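Narrative progress, year one. The postdoctoral researcher (J.K.) led the effort to move from monomer predictions toward full complexes, under supervision of the PI. The following entry was the first complex the group processed end to end, covering 368 residues in total.
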Amino acid sequence: MMTEQTREGLDRRRFIKDLVESIPDALIVTGLGSPSYDVFAAGDRPGNFYLWGAMGGSVSMGLGLALARPDKPVVVVTGDGEMLMGIGSLGTVGVKLPPNLSIVVLDNGHYGETGMQRSHASLGTDLVAVAKGFGIAESFTVEDHAGSSEIADRINAREGTCFAQVFISAKESPRALPARDGVYIKNRFRDALGLSPI
Amino acid sequence: MSWQSSIFESLKAADVRQVAYVPDAGHSETIRAAQADPEVHDTVLTTEEEGVALVSGAWLGGQRAALLMQSSGVGNCVNMFSLLESGRFPFLTLVTMRGEYAEFNPWQEPMGRATQQALELMGIHVLRVSHPDEMGEVVSAAAFAAFEAGDRVAVLISQSLIGRKQWVKP
């Protein structure tokens, strides 16, 4: 038996739009599904890398990027399901703790792409406790829209790895689909950093 | 020079700046060298598939990275290898083999026997080193193909090179 989630949850599009507008210099890696759509809907930019697959890989990709570019804020925006599939990567982040890496998990407690089945995040798992247990001390929940500016300040400061679990509504948003051509997205991203194709 | 030290020497010569790994006895010298080098980030992973995404993220930011793992780890990576083809990311992995030569543990055999085919099924070019003298050159060639041609390359390190694991203390 499952109990119903009672939390109302934030509007994900509004939250991400506020966040992205406050972090103009940040490089953003998005987990597949709705987080990719949310970040794209907030305004496409070359410093975004949208995953359309590789489930469980967003945080690791953000870690490799953050280690390579300590001069830039790096943000991973993903969902609870994608985070759960790569949950061990929080332990890997907890060992390195790059000060310029922030992880934002948009948690609606459900797998949105596959028919809104409930995820562990609404069935007992406490993601902030997990992140803290893996050594990311600056881990916290966000339950109001004002929280986006607090996260933005941490991102822009590049003074410590942080993990934010943002409780969002499970309501579906209009589709907003970024390019699916990973080679194009990769080359555009690198070009914005002054890196040439091979 | 030992084959173990020629690995890290070739990685350094190719300007590899991040080394991600799930530990293996055959990689221990490379891991120690990476940890001791202030110009190289060493990252211990909880599972090998994290490394596939990590090295791709490093490339996005302009750094070359390599993934060290044991043959069993190749099986853990299969879906994550999609990222390499979808984004045409350069990829360099060094894989120590189990289950193929004087193996004591039968549980290593299923994945050890499927390692090369699993890599090739996912579009990764496989090179193999069975003689110590070849190591530096093959790792260097693999790194060159990965970072200059954008290839996806795995170097399999034969179990015969690594030697028999001692199961009973003398």
